[in-house]
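Follow-up to my earlier ticket, as requested here are the two runs.
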Amino acid sequence: MGRQVALELVESGARVLAVARNKKRLEELKKERSDKIDIASVDVTNATGETWSDVLGACTIQNGKFDGMVYTAGVTGTTSLKYYDEKTARAIMETGFWGAMNLMKIISKKKFINPGSSFVLFSSTAGHTGEKGLSVYSATKAALMVAVRSMTHDLSREKHRVNTISPGYVKTHMTQSSVEEMGEPGGVKERHLLGIGEPGDVSGMVLFLLSDRARWITGEDFVVDGGQLRGAWR
């Protein structure tokens, strides 16, 4: 998902700093648009404030302050009571929630970001429904939605906006790995009234929320799920 957003931002005229822990994939992404994409390898689960300050500071020195940020990092895993594993649970929460909070604390500083910027954080429909066997993942995504509502008060002083996006089931590297490990979730295809999604089905909402057309929107969650939440009730 992050790759799709990065490439579409470049096509729209933006310069992008892509951050991920997989250096090989970052280098592959940079090869596609080396003139517009900078990269930094960071593991959000153990990145300190100093780490983020170094990464963001180096980029702002070269390209100027940021105008927005998209946080797509997340991992999943089965955490039903029968198979609950604290190590897995902590990895899910540290990536999807604490990683986002730690980055938001640093990137929202005046020395890194321009006034009136937009922050988009990826939640999930699981945060609305509490998916079977995904208690911690669902809780992580729900926590992110609520935290964003609170953060609006801190960020509004500089006219910043912050929103979440809750995608349904989208074909990505993470979901494919999950299918290979645990099998496809029961009934997932039937519940998506418009079919299973692709990254490009969600990225348009990201670009809209980053744009000035969304300058009066903050503290909201946008469900982009191909009708999944509606399909759950048919």
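Run two:
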Amino acid sequence: MKLVDMHCDTIYELQRDGEGQSLFHNHLCVDVERMRQAETMVQFFACFVDAKEWEEERREAHGGSVQGEGDAARPPVNGGMRISEGTWERAYARVLEMQRRLETEQGDGLKQVFSYQDILENQRKNVISAVATVEEGGVLNGNIERVDELYQKGIRLITLTWNYENCLAYPNSRDERIMRSGLKPFGRSVLQRMNELGMIVDVSHLSDGGFWDCIKYSQAPIVASHSNCRALCSHPRNLTDEMLRALAEKGGVAGLNFYPAFLKEERGREGIALRDIARHARHMIDVAGEDIVAIGTDFDGFEKEDAPGYISHVGEMESVWDAFAAENITPRQIDKIQSKNALRVMQGVWHGGNKRKK
């Protein structure tokens, strides 16, 4: 068992359109059968919500009016859609539904973990460890007690933002004003509480200003669970060399994201290839050292790329390791990327023995 993948959206896809399918067998990119092929040790499952979809439904039902909803009636600074409190409540309920699904579907071969010790116990039994995460901190909706509630339910990582402004912070953006914006006061309170509990702070999707606030204020290593190198692909979701170095100095990791748009800007006739993933791994090592690189595939979070020489599901991960070797990434470095770097962060942040209260 050698793979730790810090991000996939499989639970979201199963909840949205997965009738008759499960984590053990499905038509998506991640299931137990193919995780076995990849020798997966730990798979992070994101309880992801796109609140904008529900906000649009709500506004259509009210004829587009948002009057009488206080803060929700004012336009957000980034010109996007401000999400109402009612929609965030609906999103929080959906997160809990996805968490329950993960808990219900575990069985022989896949078991949810709540501590680093649980991972070691599963490894001894040849069982894949499942980690529940939340991708969209806006579901907290200004309620700090929800951090504790999510922790008690087994959530061990929160991605502070997705693509919208929320109660914690601002998202990545091509608007420089938004990219400079940092954590909100509530976001700093959440960061502190996550540190106290032993939850991993995830800065993927966050604005640059929010990233630097997390570097400044977090008392524990932080991660960018599924982000690549901005020097190789200038998408704002990626990290600059300066950010990669700061993340490494903080003891954190960046999970290589397999979404083609974050790997290569102009694909043209050449398309996307495994070597593009390897190029980002090589660059991370060159600018920030071999301890920063991890895997955060983002499987089931984007449409499968129909490209020869690319990867279509987790069962094909061996081809990624071959691409790394072709990029002169050493066996020791590949071992760290596969699992050791991510495991180091989990062991450190999770305080070694925290369990969910029964």
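The only thing I checked on run two: The longest strand covers residues 40-48. Let me know what else you need.
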